[in-house]
């Protein structure tokens, strides 16, 4: 086994807290939805029990309506803001009675993660019987999305907060912030005591983040009210691509399990409708790739980000569209001076290669793009992304995000945000084995 893989295993074992994993020490001290899912993919390669437990504990915090929260507050610590007392999930009548959580969600990776576990497993019979014990909860989660997050019945679900997107401070949201004027809240940030403030969102951005939550809380996190009132209401290509990918995995897994005709039929119906609307609504012909749709202000947000390419991971684009996407990816993000793939358009004046989701390279998006490009037959480009990902980790460590400019990597200081970050380790293990 390579030294780098050994180190990755160490990172994961260290962040394992007896039943679940934290994304990294200090900065993120609880269980996060999409982190947990991606972490499970890494564990599956060397400790399937932990992989299964990770998903099981996440689903244990599911609400009665199928909703899965973005953070499960599993311990009392004040090293994170905003904590459980700010989010107040108890306001929602169907929230978890067992755990304090947030009232927002994150990209629904669980479905495709279960399929990954099955693929990696050396004992498929055992893994499939585990999957049988949890799969209905994931189905219920998808049902929640299509029944509550799709007011126009299009097969596309909305997110009502930038933290739901996973791409927390993407420059795309600047357009939404321009439509808002939240109060100046007084609060004590914790993230900037753990990480250099220049790598994190600004105070004013946090005012916007908190304000949206206040509106949702005022209405006890009622989905209908949120759809009606939230200033942030976005159909996000990454979020919907992940849902579609997970939907497909559920179809495959239920088919393996057998006896679930009705659910399979429903999943197919959702799938068909979602892919159709996705292609009709989120593809921008002028730019040549997918973009975000602002459902509150009824307009496309015409920016290229790594999320623009995530539909490749879910098999959404036609071959022709994939070709156009690949061209943009190479032209904008693939120069020899760059590591792939920056999280935001390097040609934009909003691009910042050090600041969280405003430019740096993220391992989770790279992993999805690697998979997607392979599926579409672009093996040279997918290999480039795999090689770049391994190289930036090798040079800097298991950071949360990395500078996309190669020149910055000379002294091993181009890794930013949290160190010993779980999904960077987990997905590196998966990449090494792929
Ligand atoms: C943070 O605190 O920045 C988290 O990503 C929110 O989910």
Which terms would index this structure?
434 residues; mainly alpha; Glycosyltransferase; 3-stranded antiparallel β-sheet; binds (2R)-2,3-dihydroxypropanoic acid
Structure at a glance:
This protein has 434 residues and is mainly α. The chain is 49% helix and 5% strand. The protein has one domain (2-433): Glycosyltransferase, CATH 1.50.10.
State the domain count.
Answer: 1
Largest sheet: 3 strands, antiparallel
Order of helices and strands: HEHHEHEHHHHHHHEHHEEEEHHHEEH
Content of β-strand: 5-15%
Say what the CATH topology is. Glycosyltransferase
Q: Count the E strands.
A: 10
Helix content: 40-55%
Span between termini: 14 Å
Nearest-integer average pLDDT? 97
Helix count equals 17
List the ligand species: (2R)-2,3-dihydroxypropanoic acid
Main sheet: strand order: 1-2-3
Could you say which structural class the secondary elements and strand pairing correspond to?
Answer: mainly alpha
Shape: globular
Rg (C-alpha, Å) = 20 Å
Unreliable stretches (pLDDT < 50, length at least 5) are none
Q: What is the CATH class?
A: Mainly Alpha
Instruction: Please state the second-level CATH architecture.
Output: Alpha/alpha barrel
Domain Mannosylglycerate hydrolase MGH1-like glycoside hydrolase: 28-424
GO molecular function, one term: Glc3Man9GlcNAc2 oligosaccharide glucosidase activity
Protein name: Trehalase
Pfam family, one: MGH1-like_GH
């Amino acid at each position: 086994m390579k030294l780098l893989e050994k180190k990755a295993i160490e990172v994961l074992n260290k962040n394992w807290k007896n039943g679940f994993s934290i994304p990294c020490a200090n900065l993120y001290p609880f269980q996060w939805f999409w982190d947990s899912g991606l972490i499970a993919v890494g564990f599956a390669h060397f400790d399937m029990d932990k992989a299964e437990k990770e998903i099981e504990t996440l689903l244990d915090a599911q609400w009665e309506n199928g909703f899965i929260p973005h953070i499960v507050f599993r311990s009392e610590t004040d090293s994170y803001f905003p904590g459980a007392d700010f989010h107040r999930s108890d306001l929602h009548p169907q929230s978890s009675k067992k755990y304090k959580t947030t009232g927002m969600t994150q990209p629904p990776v669980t479905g495709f993660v279960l399929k990954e576990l099955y693929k990696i497993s050396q004992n498929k019979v055992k893994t499939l019987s585990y999957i049988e014990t949890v799969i209905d909860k994931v189905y219920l989660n998808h049902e929640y999305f299509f029944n509550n997050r799709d007011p126009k019945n299009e097969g596309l679900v909305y997110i009502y907060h930038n933290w739901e997107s996973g791409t927390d401070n993407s420059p795309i949201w600047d357009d939404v912030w321009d439509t808002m004027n939240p109060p100046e809240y007084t609060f004590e940030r914790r993230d900037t005591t753990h990480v250099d403030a220049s790598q994190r969102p600004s105070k004013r951005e946090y005012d916007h983040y908190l304000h949206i939550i206040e509106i949702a809380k005022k209405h006890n996190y009622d989905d209908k009210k949120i759809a009606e009132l939230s200033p942030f209401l976005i159909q996000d290509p990454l979020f919907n691509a992940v849902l579609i990918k997970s939907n497909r995995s559920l179809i495959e897994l239920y088919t393996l399990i057998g006896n679930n005709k009705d659910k399979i039929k429903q999943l197919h119906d959702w799938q068909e409708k979602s892919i159709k609307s996705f292609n009709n609504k989120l593809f921008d012909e002028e730019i040549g790739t997918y973009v975000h749709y602002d459902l509150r202000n009824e307009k496309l947000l015409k920016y290229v980000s790594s999320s623009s390419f995530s539909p490749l991971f879910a098999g959404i684009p036609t071959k022709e569209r994939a070709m156009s996407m690949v061209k943009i990816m190479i032209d904008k993000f693939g120069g020899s001076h760059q590591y792939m793939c920056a999280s935001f358009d390097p040609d934009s004046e909003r691009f910042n290669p050090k600041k969280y989701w405003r430019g740096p390279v993220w391992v989770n998006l790279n992993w999805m793009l690697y998979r997607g490009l392979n599926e579409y037959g672009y093996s040279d480009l997918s290999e480039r992304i795999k090689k770049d990902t391994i190289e930036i980790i090798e040079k800097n460590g298991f950071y949360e995000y990395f500078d996309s400019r190669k020149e910055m990597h000379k002294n091993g200081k181009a890794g930013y945000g949290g160190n010993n970050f779980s999904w960077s380790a987990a997905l590196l293990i998966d990449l090494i084995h792929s």
